[in-house]
Amino acid sequence: MVKAQNVKNGKLNRKDLSYISNEVSNSLPRSQLAAGDVVMTYVGANIGDVAVIDDECKYHLAPNVAKIRPDAEKYNSVYFMYMLMFLNSYIVGNSADTAKAALGMERIRKLKIFTPPTDLQKQFAAFVARTDKSKMAIQQSLEQLKTLKKALAQKYFS
User: 130: domain range?
Assistant: First the structure.
């Protein structure tokens, strides 16, 4: 089950996922998520956070998370998610003022999303993938440098 705390800054955090049985899963077809679906939190502190569902696992919606299935002929899911991230301040600004910030499904459905040509959306998604790959490589290099630094410090100071 994808809960609001699993959706943060365009990423699906797989820590602390809740699990349901296959029997329960099969009885809840409307809450099933498919690869390419965009999920958005619509209640609470992280209102408007989004992520794209990959095809790695079978997921379901938990409360306070909306499923958005972009028209594949019109939108690339990665582009769509980043457009929602770009519109976050607008989305948050238009949430209902209750004890807890809330964004109703009606307001989500009425969001206006810019629709550039599909080729440009695909180029954008490819750029994001390359950037994420570079970020991961840099992060791995930083981890290696930290390990090397610790090893050298231990060697010289012991």
Answer: 116-158
Domain harbouring 73, CATH code: 3.90.220.20
Q: Which residue has the tokens 């989004």?
A: 50
Using CA atoms, how far apart are residues 143 and 49, in angstroms rounded to an integer? 28
**How many domains does one find in the chain?**
2
Residue 59 reports pLDDT greater than 70: yes
- Among candidate residues 36, 38, 18, the one with its CA nearest the CA of residue 28: 18
Q: What is the pLDDT of residues 79-128, one digit of tens each?
A: 999 999 988 877 777 665 554 556 666 777 777 777 889 899 999 999 99
pTM score of the predicted model: 0.68
Q: Are residues 25 and 97 in the same domain?
A: yes
